[in-house]
Amino acid sequence: MLRVQRLTLSNRLIDIRLTVSGGESVHLLGPNGAGKSSLLLTLAGLLQPDAGEVSWQGRSLDQQSPMELAGYRCLMEQQQQTQFAVTVRECLAFASPGLTLPEELEAALEIRQFWSRPMNQLSGGELRRVQIARSLTQIWPAVEAGEAMILMDEPVQGLDFSHQHKLCQLLKKLTGRGNVLVISHHQLNLAQMYATRICLLKDGKLLADGSPQQTLEPGLLQQVFDCQVRVLTDTEQNRLIQTYLA
Ligand SMILES: Nc1ncnc2c1ncn2[C@@H]1O[C@H](COP(=O)(O)OP(=O)(O)OP(=O)(O)O)[C@@H](O)[C@H]1O
After folding, report:
1. In Å, how far are 40, 81, 122, 129, 175 from 150, measured between CA atoms?
2. Average pLDDT, the chain
3. Which residue of 29, 38, 187 sits with most ligand 1 atoms within 8 Å of its CB, as the best mutation to test the pocket?
4. Is the CB of 218 under 6 A from ligand 1?
5. Whole-number pLDDT of residue 244
6. d(CA 31, CA 213)
7. Which candidate, 111, 116, 194, 177, places its Cα nearest to that of 141?
8. How far does the centroid of ligand 1 lie from the alpha carbon of residue 79, in Å?
């Protein structure tokens, strides 16, 4: 279980409280600058809060060495620069020496076709798929055991429609094993399809935390995004579809 108590980080995060149990998939939504990346970095133990605490399985991250954290927690950051001409194979081998790419990662991310290509010659979406694979392979034993904390900052950015869904289906499968997922992005439709919970952030504050039905609600979305949002329901699938009204 991931637990966040009264987390404050300058004016970027204000009194955030959050508990995420194994098997939950929490999607962070909010406008640019809301605090999603700051929250993910703090959950990962990479940013030290001014106040409050992040704990995993009852132990504060402060009590854990970088080595221990690296065994069960991954963070795929939003901006990942690749200046080096290492191949995809070398990049993955560096992240997880001796590990062959798990078949279920390949099925969703389809990166073997780039195996011998230099990282700095991939397209934006291709590179993102490799970066997702690298993040997950780094902690693969914990993922397989259902004991991982998977943090992803806008992993769907740049992915085509099909790979967005393949990634979300993969993550759903992984949380089904008991792993914790906290992911940020800007796709309301993906959130309604794949989130078990949605957290709406604005100006560093957690404005709402609940199921897709509770949070993808026109009044709340208007408050968060400062624009009118119409929420449509696909009655055949019993799914919500959100549409922005100009
Ligand atoms: N290194 C930093 N030092 C100080 N302030 C920062 C830093 N990085 C981001 N901020 C500020 O913190 C606030 C939250 O930024 P953050 O990157 O967490 O937002 P976000 O919700 O992830 O935004 P986006 O959707 O644009 O990625 C913003 O006001 C931003 O300008």
Report:
1. 10, 20, 24, 15, 9
2. 93
3. 38
4. no
5. 64
6. 20
7. 177
8. 12
- pLDDT at residue number 84: 72
Instruction: Give ipTM to 2 decimals.
Output: 0.98
Would you say the CB of residue 32 lies under 6 angstroms from ligand 1?
A: yes
Contact 113, 85 (CB under 8 A): no
Q: Which candidate, 210, 181, 201, places its Cα nearest to that of 9?
A: 201
Q: Which helix (H) or strand (E) holds 128?
A: helix 124-138
Class of domain 2-244: alpha beta
Using the mean position of ligand 1's atoms as its centre, give its distance from the Cα of residue 42 in Å: 12
Domain boundaries, the chain: 2-244
pLDDT in tens, 54-113: 999 999 999 999 999 999 999 999 877 666 789 999 988 887 777 789 999 999 999 999
Distance 32 CA to ligand 1 centre (A): 8
Contact 215, 227 (CB under 8 A): no
Q: Which atom of ligand 1 is nearest to the CA of 184?
A: 22
Residue ID of nearest Cα to ligand 1 atom 31: 33
Say if ligand 1 is within 6 A of residue 45 CB. no
In what side-by-side order are the strands of the sheet with 51-56?
Answer: 13-20, 2-9, 51-56, 59-60
